[in-house]
Design goal:
Layout: E1 19-23, H1 27-33, H2 38-59, E2 63-70, H3 78-101, E3 105-109, H4 117-130, E4 137-144, H5 146-160, H6 169-174, E5 186-189, E6 208-211, H7 221-232, H8 242-245
Parallel strand pairs: 1-2, 1-5, 2-4, 3-4, 5-6
The structure holds 3-methylbut-3-enyl trihydrogen diphosphate (IPE) (2 copies) and magnesium ion (MG).
């Protein structure tokens, strides 16, 4: 049961997360249940992304980080992988003007070295066009892996520093994909499974976790509100006692 629906418990509506990170899971099952191709499920998933961006803007969320394609997803049938990348490319091209008009700053996080030239160019164009925008920061994780991000950061730190035995948290932090942004306050995973699947690891250290059985293409405004209301009731202690928090 969600706390948000508990009679008598009223959510503190001002307790809004600054940064929400989402694993958008369940596109395949949603499509299968309808006799559609998995790609159709991913297309529907993109529509939900556009809705969720609007909810973030309405709620004053500052950062939204979405897991679109993980390093492990290369193991899927090649047709699905191709279709996913085609969809990503089309969305980048087609929706860029709209994202920019909405003052959204778009960042693609992940290992981009594997992408073809056209995709690299589309990503670069999108990031350059929107980099001065002051509204929602939208991070899309593509060919991303939390472990990759950490290894990549460690390698960069090692290259820079002479004192290799002393790597500090701050040094490592500086080289991670999400550097400069507040850490996620709220993590949402749809689709019924409760795992992190090699999404951001370092920055989730103190994130509040929220899981829902709802498949991503069925994720509605009511679901979103529920996740935020649930978050608003969490007591974030960061190691302190309840009494210390007062
Ligand atoms: C998540 O949905 C989207 C991606 C991984 C790209 P899935 O495709 O994993 O959907 P299920 O889990 O098979 O239902
Ligand atoms: C995680 O979803 C990756 C994305 C949503 C992009 P998966 O559906 O691939 O995760 P697992 O393999 O079931 O853990
Ligand atoms: Mg899945």
């Amino acid at each position: 049961m969600s706390y948000a629906n508990h009679p008598g418990i009223k959510a503190n509506e001002n307790n809004i997360p600054k940064h929400v990170a989402i694993i958008m899971d369940g596109n395949g099952r949603w499509a299968k249940a309808r006799g559609f191709s998995r790609t159709k499920g991913h297309q529907k998933g993109v529509e939900i992304v556009k809705e969720v961006i609007k909810y973030c803007q309405e709620n004053g969320i500052q950062v939204l980080t979405l897991f679109a394609f993980g390093v492990e997803n290369w193991k899927r049938p090649s047709k699905e992988v191709r279709n996913l990348f085609r969809l990503f490319f089309l969305v980048l091209r087609k929706d860029l003007v709209n994202l920019n008009e909405n003052n959204i700053q778009l960042r693609i996080i992940g290992d981009k070295t594997a992408f073809n030239r056209a995709l690299k160019t589309a990503i670069q164009d999108a990031e350059i066009l929107t980099q001065q925008n002051t509204g929602l920061v939208l991070n899309i994780a593509v060919n991303y892996s939390g472990r990759w991000d950490l290894i990549n950061a460690i390698q960069k730190v090692l290259k820079r520093t002479s004192e290799k035995s002393e790597i500090s948290e701050a040094q490592l932090n500086q080289e991670l994909s999400l550097f400069g942004l507040p850490e996620p306050d709220l993590f949402i995973r749809t689709g019924g499974v409760q795992r992190i699947s090699n999404f951001i690891l370092w920055e989730l250290a103190y994130t509040e976790l929220y899981f829902t059985k709802t498949l991503w293409p069925d994720f509605t405004k009511a679901e979103w509100d529920n996740a935020l209301a649930d978050f608003a009731l969490r007591e974030r202690r960061f190691g302190l006692t309840g009494e210390q928090l007062g």
